[in-house]
Amino acid sequence: MAEAVAWIHEDPASVGLEGLDPARPELFTSGRWQGLFARLRRDDPVHWSADGIEGPYWSITRYEDVKYCDQRNDLFSSDGSIVLQDNDAEFPLPMFIAMDQPKHDAQRKVVSPVVAPMNLKLLEGTIRQRVVNILESLPVGEPFNWVDKVSIELTTQMLATLFDFPFEDRRKLTRWSDVATSDEFSGIVESEDQRRAELTECLMYFNELWRQRTGKPGNDLISMLANGTATRDMPQTEFLGNLVLLIVGGNDTTRNSISGGVLALNQFPEQYDKLRANPALIPNMVAEMIRWQTPLAYMRRTALVDTELGGKTIRKGDKVAMWYISGNRDETVFKDADSLIIDRPNARQHLSFGFGIHRCMGNRLAEMQLRILWEEIMVRFRQVEVVGEPVRVSNAFVKGYSELPVVVHPL
Q1: Residues sharing a CB contact under 8 Å with residue 270, sequence separation 6 or more, in sequence order
Q2: What's the mean pLDDT in 77-96?
Q3: Residue 47: enclosing H or E segment and its boundaries?
């Protein structure tokens, strides 16, 4: 293992291209991914990893190429898996984000009303009150883990609302989200058997909610799935797969942007000063935080036909990783791309939500949670100060944090 990843700790410019495997989780745990992707964008933007940790695959690293692949469903398929690891034949988790048209569109249409503009307007007051309650409960002047007390708590409360999930059990959603994107090397589960057992527990819990709501249309995600024409007859594996998609999509992504935004403002304190001077920048800052953090590092596609990209021939059946994290740091699109710039003019052009038919369904909800959070932070605290090193999760797909020690200072 040590020899296989030695290049992670070396200058990326000094390492041969042929040995680089951007999907190594150690790259993200160490926080040393920027130089590697900068090298690939410059020298090999369509990069073949013959001996990747999850088998051979292509890395797409430039902004325009990532956007092209994401929109060309005629060339690149989502069917089967959105991560480089292939679906487990013994424990498959089909979900609509990992489906092509027309099935994708039919299932997505069932649940999309939960984040329709009218529903978001109704949710805004609830979100604000929960943000206020969370912030008012924080220990002022004392160190605590921002990830647990704020990022996880806010997003898990929101997720419980969207599912109409028993509120007292909401931390089960957090656990299932973590388990769904983990493996035996992550430190979250000890074995694949444990992962399957916990996800089966998730399915059993939601099966009871499904049973209770069948035939009773409602505005929560379970009622929508249980009564939707395209979803009410789903097999159990597909129900669990879509649950995993909605839990991870509604939890991991927003929570890691909340944590990453605090870290970024501390790394670029002049931007914090800019924010204090002009809180009206918050909506644009939210987009910039999502760009800077990029909470899902990549999405996988599979080539449907032989195709040319960047002077390389991608063969039918090849795995392709569209590295959102790299496209969001492409200097040809975002000037000084490694920096957080809260008034960046083109911050909203980031790749984090994807493009085309798979564009993130909950993007407006995520932005609203972040906007409200920062509006309420700014009327209470002079600073959310990071007072220790963040602990990053061991995952090349979910780019996130398990710990971010902070102290909040009152106005």
Answers
A1: none
A2: 73
A3: strand 46-49
